[in-house]
Each structure stands twice: as C-alpha cells, then as structure tokens.
Amino acid sequence: MNQRTIKTAIAVTGTGLHSGQPVDLEFHPQPIDTGILFERSDIAGSTPIPASAFLVQDTMMSSNLVFGGTRVGTVEHLLSAIAGLGVDNLLIRVSASEIPIMDGSAAPFVGLLLQAGFCEQDALKKFIRIARTVRVKVDDKWAELRPYDGFELNFEIDFDHPAIDKNFQHAQLQFSTQNFIEQLSSARTFGFLRDIEAMRQNNLALGGSMDNAIVIDEANILNEEGLRFNDEFVRHKILDALGDLYLIGYPILGRFNAYKSGHALNNLVVREILSDHNNFEIVTFDDNVTCPIEYLPLTAITVEG
Ligand SMILES: [Zn+2]
C-alpha cells in the first residue's frame, strides 16, 4: 500500500468561524514523505506549519497549530477529511488564521478532495501501530489508544440536556474510507446558544450560524432541518477525534476509546504515545490485502454532485 497525494491543486472560499470573514483555502499535491503542511497565504514568506501534535498550542474550542509565531486554527475537521481519505502528503494554503468552517462538518472538504482526485506515489504508506495501551484522564474524562488490528473509534458523551437524547450518546466507527464518508463525514459541530452569544460579546464566533453548526437553546435544537443522524453529536466528536489523532503523523492501527474527551485530551493521548518508543512502531504493508485498513481504491473514487 503506497502513499497518496492529490492529483491536481484545487481551491475553495469559505467563512472563518471566528472572524466571519471570507477565507481562501487551497490544496496542493506534495512529494512522498512530506506529510501534511499548512501555510498562511496572507503572510509573505511564512514558514509552513507541519501537522504535528506537538505544535498544538491551544485547544479551547478547536485544535490550533502555532509554529514560528504563525498560527492556523480549527484544523480538525479538515484533518479528519484528510485522514478519512487516506491522504499522506498535502499542502494546505489558507488566507487567514483559521480554516473556514464550511457547513461545520468534514463533508465539504471530502467533496473537494475527491474532486481533486488522488494519485498513488512511489513509496510505501507508513502507519503507526499502537504497541501498548496509553490512557490519559482529567477529572472524569478520559481517552486511550490500545493495540488493535485495524482502526476503531469508540466515543461516549454525557450531556444532560433535553435536546440531546440519552440513547444516542455513544457511537463507534470501524474505520474505512467508505465508513468514514457514509457514517461520519457529514456530522456537524454543535454549540449552545448561550455560549455562542457569550463568544460574540468577545468578538468570537462572528461567522457562526445554523448554516455551520447545530445550535441548541435551553430545550431545543434550533436548526429547522433537525439532525443529520440521531447521534450526530457523538458522531461529530469522533470526527473531531479522527482529525486530532491524525496529528500523530501517520494513520493509526489501534483502538481509540474516549469518554467525554475533547481536543485537549485527544492531543494529550497522542503526545503520550509519542513520548515513549515502546508505545508504538511504524509499519508498512507491501500490498493492500495485508493492510488491515481499507481505503477506497483509486479507481473506485468518483465525484458526487
Ligand atoms: Zn468539531
């Protein structure tokens, strides 16, 4: 199984969640072993920022990378799409300090990357295989990565809120590109109206609306169209985790379990894994049959819409 990049460069314009301003986003193919890089197109000569867990500086409402004084924020939904599609090498150029929010899910990024198309590169794809269980915990929240032959994500939330059904607070994804696209990629971020109003007072979330988030007041979901899945909230938490975990630098072979985790704990479990070489090994597969993860074969990738 070989590394992948995109076939052609592609661009889109979206809105910054916090600034409310238009943000230009471009994807460019990259050579083997480059990994995922972010570059600020609005800062002349700025150094590209590698998608590394060690560059995550704040995790207040999103995962934000800072390198050499340059910042790119809200990277997790885009990284989730990149991880979901199995892209190894890519340059992302962005014209602001935040990745545009699009519809609050990873689906628009998936659509764009599919439209660019993929090409297989002449080097084996590297995976990080979890060799020992590592668990991080803060108060009653925890996240762990365990050895597992494949990639599975389990997530449980615990919201005591009339609009968030108690029966739909746990979800599981057996990772494959197909499962990612169908079961996860379109799950939107969510926010409570009172938090959004408070953020606006501080000039944050100026671009936030029901076009890019599920908005909940004291009792109800305010979006007229309702939810895309009964368990959309917890599915989105898995979507976030997939993006945050890709900052480990490779696709994961392991099982991720989490209870009430968020960007901070997702980041911490990755750093913990990487802190000791006995926790992991880097592996490759000579062919697609022996690889325990299924990506869409290049020939099967079609563009929808
Ligand atoms: Zn999110």
From TrEMBL:
<feature type="binding site">
    <location>
        <position position="236"/>
    </location>
    <ligand>
        <name>Zn(2+)</name>
    </ligand>
</feature>
<protein>
    <recommendedName>
        <fullName>UDP-3-O-acyl-N-acetylglucosamine deacetylase</fullName>
        <ecNumber>3.5.1.108</ecNumber>
    </recommendedName>
</protein>
<feature type="active site" description="Proton donor">
    <location>
        <position position="263"/>
    </location>
</feature>
<keyword id="KW-0441">Lipid A biosynthesis</keyword>
<keyword id="KW-0479">Metal-binding</keyword>
<comment type="similarity">
    <text>Belongs to the LpxC family.</text>
</comment>
<keyword id="KW-0443">Lipid metabolism</keyword>
<dbReference type="InterPro" id="IPR015870">
    <property type="entry name" value="UDP-acyl_N-AcGlcN_deAcase_N"/>
</dbReference>
<dbReference type="Pfam" id="PF03331">
    <property type="entry name" value="LpxC"/>
</dbReference>
<comment type="pathway">
    <text>Glycolipid biosynthesis; lipid IV(A) biosynthesis; lipid IV(A) from (3R)-3-hydroxytetradecanoyl-[acyl-carrier-protein] and UDP-N-acetyl-alpha-D-glucosamine: step 2/6.</text>
</comment>
<keyword id="KW-0378">Hydrolase</keyword>
<keyword id="KW-0444">Lipid biosynthesis</keyword>
<dbReference type="GO" id="GO:0103117">
    <property type="term" value="F:UDP-3-O-acyl-N-acetylglucosamine deacetylase activity"/>
</dbReference>
<dbReference type="InterPro" id="IPR011334">
    <property type="entry name" value="UDP-acyl_GlcNac_deAcase_C"/>
</dbReference>
<dbReference type="InterPro" id="IPR004463">
    <property type="entry name" value="UDP-acyl_GlcNac_deAcase"/>
</dbReference>
<feature type="binding site">
    <location>
        <position position="77"/>
    </location>
    <ligand>
        <name>Zn(2+)</name>
    </ligand>
</feature>
<comment type="function">
    <text>Catalyzes the hydrolysis of UDP-3-O-myristoyl-N-acetylglucosamine to form UDP-3-O-myristoylglucosamine and acetate, the committed step in lipid A biosynthesis.</text>
</comment>
<dbReference type="InterPro" id="IPR020568">
    <property type="entry name" value="Ribosomal_Su5_D2-typ_SF"/>
</dbReference>
<keyword id="KW-0862">Zinc</keyword>
<feature type="binding site">
    <location>
        <position position="240"/>
    </location>
    <ligand>
        <name>Zn(2+)</name>
    </ligand>
</feature>
